[in-house]
Design brief:
Layout lengths: L2 H6 L6 H30 L7 H21 L2 H23 L13
Helix pairs in contact: 2-4, 3-4
Amino acid sequence: IDRAFYKERRGLMDVDTVGMTAFVISLVYTGIGLPAQILANHRRKAMHGLSLFMNVVLLLTFSIWIIYGSMKKDWYIVGSNAPGLACIVIILFQFYKYRPALKNSLNEPI
């Protein structure tokens, strides 16, 4: 691959264009998809169908990307992952808030 060709070329292969495209796609996912999930969880008062493990993995993923983007001073990376991190923190709180109530064996008749 001729790197000079891609470095000088403007258009779809421009690094800033690709970065902005990734930024917009990430914001659509984290700005529409995750808030919709938060709202659905709130309405149901339950977390049916969601994996706690996968949401913890998403928390770690968003966190690492934010750290990496901060170290590189790449605000496309930080800006596109920060809303996702905030939403995942809310979803993890919902896992705690809407967890199933444990039956107290002392209150059950014998």
